[in-house]
Design a protein that fits this description.
With about 110 residues, this protein is of the alpha/beta class. It has four helices and four strands, in the order βαβαβαβα. Helix content is about 35%, strand content about 20%. Helix 1 links the parallel strand 1 and strand 2. Helix 1 packs across helix 4.
């Protein structure tokens, strides 16, 4: 059996986009998924432990990729890709779910 991809999905505050991704993929047998935010006011803030665990990091916006690189500049980072999903969706929004499934499935 092949090992599962360890996927870390990040957005601003881990309230809508990354939480939705974690929710819709949490039972997917192809991966292990965690979500977090990069803002100090995040529901669950990204940690060094998350970064060390992840094989792939997906962020929603380009500036978030730069922020993650700044936050962990002293560490070796896994691949970080940008999904280009703007912060205009609510948690579990149908359109957001469609975009996340389409984007994340290309990595699996």
């Amino acid at each position: 059996m092949t090992s599962k991809l360890k996927l870390l999905v990040l957005c601003g505050r881990n309230k809508k986009r990354s939480r939705t991704a974690e929710f819709i993929f949490k039972n997917d047998p192809r991966l292990e998924i965690r979500s977090a935010g990069i803002s100090p006011s995040s529901v669950r803030k990204v940690s060094e432990n998350d970064k060390n665990w992840a094989e792939l990091v997906l962020v929603m916006e380009k500036n978030q990729k730069n922020k993650v690189k700044e936050m962990f500049s002293h560490l070796e980072l896994p691949q970080i890709d940008v999904l280009d999903i703007p912060d205009e969706y609510e948690f579990m929004d149908e359109e957001l779910i469609t975009m996340l499934k389409s984007s994340i499935n290309t990595y699996l």
